[in-house]
């Protein structure tokens, strides 16, 4: 290993590497934006232009005429809202039970819960599909929302860790005042666990907003499509027709809410990800 | 270090992009005539590539695309790095050790649990890849990107062979399990845990 002549040299190298990877990260996103603002003629000019001559904001409006984008948005929001509510409500109760109530088989049941984290989606895909078929759940939102109300191993783990760190004296004091378990969760534990609950809410928002495979498997009525499913059909249509500007505009609209959420709640993102890392 | 927050945000941004959007975007970036990558290559005087449309380039192209979205892994690594006791790296400096010594004898051993975690998660995730090849190549060209789950999906939902597909699902489950166990077994001789005095 050769020694660097000076620390300054080393710093320059570090910055060069950082800038290089930054370009790699950002340039595709810039390309996405720039393509979404071009005319179909401009997008296919050779040599290609970096930026559109006149930004075609109309592409975004046009998009709503070509596909029921507003409807897809509302559909997605409905699914996302149910998932977030379900995840926060169910997992906080489940994690509370594991963290605070002594009952027979608690350790085994918690272990089973944790084992489901390792269970890949691929394995459960077919049995779940058959099950939802039996329940007449195909082409409804049930398969995409109901399970959120029945707990998720990873969120249970996160909340369990957090609840454990809250001193039990709070619960005991409340018990003396004649408060039941449910009230302890809603009045004592939940208000003190806002950061952890925020992580659960944000992650379940992201997972259901970004989910492609679920809607793809269960929905076949166009009016029920989510954004990601709508984009999938835009891809099969437009990439053949070469209407990439609409495809890119739709993509920007799907990314925008996620980006917004990220910038507003950056702190919790990091927390959630590194909490996940602790498991290892 | 100046600008470190900006770099962190920038590195993380791509992993926010939903997989369906990144599939659409990268199809466009990989477009043989008008895509960003071939434009860059030709402007540098290099030959354009077929990317996801070539038999030999499709897998490397999908790997390059997934490297774009490694923000989550970066954050887990960052958390690991921040957990390394400062005293130890300082001790190396006091003893006259170089940056390389610091890396080899302090940082690397302390990071092995993080590396183990990311390797296992990465392998499990790798077995599950579906959306990118389904959207971008549909397993092509000439089945060069026919991934396991894509094949499973086709068996189950295109050919209605639910039983066969379930067997495939069990197989991939067992395979991931076995691979994870093997990695965990090897971990005793390369992963270092704090408080472990044997090493």
How does this structure look, described?
The complex is a heterodimer of chains A (280) and B (199). Chain A is mostly helical. Chain A folds into two domains: 7-59, no CATH class; 65-278, MetI-like (MetI-like fold, Orthogonal Bundle). Helix content of chain A is 74%, strand content 0%. Chain A is built from 14 helices and no strands. In chain A, helix 1 (7-36) crosses helix 14. The longest helix of chain A is centred in the C-terminal third of the chain and has 35 residues, at 244-278. By secondary structure, chain B is mainly alpha-helical. Chain B has a single domain (4-187), classed as MetI-like fold (Orthogonal Bundle). Helices cover 66% and strands 0% of the residues of chain B. Chain B has helices at 4-12, 19-29, 36-43, 58-68, 71-82, 86-94, 99-127, 131-136, 148-158, 162-187. The longest helix of chain B is centred in the middle third of the chain and has 29 residues, at 99-127. Chain B is flat and about 65 Å long. Chain B starts with a helix and ends in a 12-residue tail after the last helix. The relative contact order of chain B is 0.10. The model of chain B has no long low-confidence stretch (mean pLDDT 89). At the A-B interface, helix 1, helix 6, helix 13 and helix 14 of A face helix 1, helix 2, helix 3, helix 5 and helix 7 of B.
């Amino acid at each position: 290993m050769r020694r660097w002549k000076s620390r300054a040299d080393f710093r320059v190298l570090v910055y060069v590497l950082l800038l290089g990877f930054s370009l790699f990260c950002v340039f595709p996103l810039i390309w996405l934006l720039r393509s979404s603002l071009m005319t179909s003629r401009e997008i296919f000019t050779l040599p290609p232009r970096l930026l559109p001559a006149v930004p075609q904001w109309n592409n975004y409006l046009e998009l709503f005429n070509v596909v029921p984008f507003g409807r897809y948005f509302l559909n997605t929001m409905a699914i996302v809202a149910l998932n977030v509510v379900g995840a926060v409500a169910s997992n906080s109760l489940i994690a509370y039970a594991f963290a605070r109530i002594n009952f027979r088989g608690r350790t085994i049941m918690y272990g089973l819960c944790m084992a489901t984290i390792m269970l890949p989606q691929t394995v459960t895909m077919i049995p779940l599909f058959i099950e939802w078929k039996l329940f007449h759940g195909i082409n409804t939102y049930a398969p995409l929302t109901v399970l959120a109300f029945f707990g998720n191993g990873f969120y249970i783990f996160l909340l369990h860790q957090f609840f454990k760190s809250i001193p039990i004296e709070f619960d005991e004091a409340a018990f003396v005042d004649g408060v039941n378990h449910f009230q302890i969760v809603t009045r004592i534990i939940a208000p003190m666990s806002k950061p952890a609950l925020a992580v659960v809410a944000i992650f379940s928002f992201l997972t259901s907003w970004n989910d492609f495979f679920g809607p793809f498997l269960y929905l076949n009525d166009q009016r029920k499509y989510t954004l990601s499913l709508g984009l999938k059909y835009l891809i099969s249509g437009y990439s053949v027709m070469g209407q990439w500007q609409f495809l890119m505009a739709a993509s920007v609209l799907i990314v925008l809410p996620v980006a917004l959420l990220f910038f507003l709640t950056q702190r919790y993102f990091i927390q959630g990800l590194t909490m996940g890392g602790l498991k290892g | 270090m100046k600008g470190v927050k900006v770099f962190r945000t920038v590195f993380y941004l791509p992993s926010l992009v939903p997989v369906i959007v990144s599939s659409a975007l990268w199809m466009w970036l990989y477009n043989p005539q008008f895509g960003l990558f071939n434009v860059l290559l030709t402007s540098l005087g290099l030959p354009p590539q077929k990317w996801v449309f070539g038999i030999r380039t499709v897998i490397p192209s999908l790997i390059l695309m997934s490297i774009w979205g490694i923000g989550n892994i970066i954050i887990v690594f960052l958390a690991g790095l921040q957990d390394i006791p400062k005293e130890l790296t300082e001790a190396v400096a006091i003893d006259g050790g170089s940056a390389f010594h610091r890396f080899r004898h302090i940082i690397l051993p302390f990071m092995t649990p993080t590396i183990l975690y990311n390797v296992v998660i990465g392998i499990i995730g790798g077995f599950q890849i579906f959306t990118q090849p389904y959207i971008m190549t549909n397993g092509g060209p000439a089945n060069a990107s026919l991934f396991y789950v894509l094949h499973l999906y086709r068996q189950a939902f295109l050919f209605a062979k639910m039983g066969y597909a379930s067997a495939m699902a069990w197989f991939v489950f067992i395979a991931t399990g076995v691979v994870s166990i093997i990695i965990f077994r090897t971990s005793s001789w390369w992963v270092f845990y704090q408080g472990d005095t044997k090493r």
